[in-house]
Automatic annotation (TrEMBL):
Protein name, per record: Heat-shock protein HtpX
Database matches in Gene3D superfamilies: 3.40.50.2300
UniProt cross-references to InterPro entries, sorted A to Z: Ptyr_pPase, Ptyr_pPase_sf
Keyword presence, Acyltransferase: no
Gene Ontology biological process terms in this record: response to arsenic-containing substance
Superkingdom of source: Bacteria
Record keywords: Arsenical resistance
Length: 136
């Protein structure tokens, strides 16, 4: 069993922290359990998580209705081993020694649940691959 110091820490970042990064964090928390520490944040957080995203995740058996978008902080990046951006551009601070990945994914903002489902499914696939890499 990993001690807290040995658990890899992953930060998911998108602009509003209302869609992609929330789905990714929820999948990693759900699939990784206590093997991974998970955070998500946005460079310009929305007021609430996208309702179509909440609905799409509920269909996958994961309740994110209580989540709220959070502001990206320098501390969150410093405290993470892996930083995965999802369309936040240059607003993510970069520190040496961190692993940075950029996942090009469509933005679910303003989309209905039908448009969110394929984004959700792609995020889940990427999270499963990420878990294989970081949580050995």
């Amino acid at each position: 069993m990993n001690t807290p110091a040995e658990r890899p820490s992953v930060l998911f970042v998108c602009v509003h922290n209302a869609g992609r990064s929330q789905m990714a964090a929820a999948f990693l928390t759900h699939l990784g359990g206590d093997r991974v520490q998970v955070r998500s944040a946005g460079s310009a957080p929305a007021d609430a998580v996208n309702p179509a995203v909440v609905e799409a995740m509920a269909e996958a058996g994961i309740d994110i209705s209580a989540e709220v978008p959070k502001m990206l902080t320098v501390e969150a990046v410093q405290d993470s081993d892996v930083v995965i951006t999802m369309g936040c551009g240059d607003s993510c601070p970069v520190f040496p020694g961190k692993q940075y990945l950029d996942w090009e994914l469509p933005d679910p903002a303003g989309q209905g649940v039908d448009a969110v489902r394929p984004i959700r499914d792609e995020i889940e696939k990427r999270i499963r691959g990420l878990l294989d890499e970081i949580a050995r």
